[in-house]
User: Fold RidA family protein from Halomonas rhizosphaerae.
Amino acid sequence: MTQTIDAAVAAQGLTLPAIPRPRGAFLPWSRLGSQLFLAGQICERDGEVLYPGKVGTEFDLATGKLAAQACALNLLASLSDAVAGDMRRVVRCVRMNGFVNVAPGFHDVPLVINGASDLFIALFGENGRHARTAIGVATLPGNAAVEVEAIFEIRD
Assistant:
C-alpha cells in the first residue's frame, strides 16, 4: 500500500488542511517538467489567519515556528494535490523561501523558518533537506506572521 502525504502528516500528529483559496490571481501550484513550484502559503486555515501580527512583538520565536509549520502544512496540501497524494512521486524538496513579518530588531528569522524546514525533513528524511532563504519583512498578506513557498522535484 502506498503511503499518502495525508497519512505521513497524521503520523506526525498533525492534520493536512484543505488547500487555502488563493488571495490573488494565481494557482496553488505549477509544474514545469519534474519541478513543482508551490505558491507562497501564509499561516491560515479555512481563510482565517492563525497568527496575525509580528514575530518579536505579538509572537515569540516558538510561536513563529508554529506559524511556519502551518505554512508548511498548507504547502503539503498543494503538494498532495499535485501528486494525487502519492508520496512515492515526491523525489525531494529542492528549495524553500520563507518570509517572516518581523518587529524591528528581530534577527532570528532563520530559526522561525525552521518550523517549516523541520516538518519537511521529518516527512521526507534527507530528501526533505533543501536550499533556503529566510527573509524578514515589514508585512505579509492578511498581516500573517509567516509565509513560505517551496519547489519540489517530483516524478510521474
About this structure: The first strand starts at residue 29 and ends at 32. The first helix runs from residue 5 to 11.
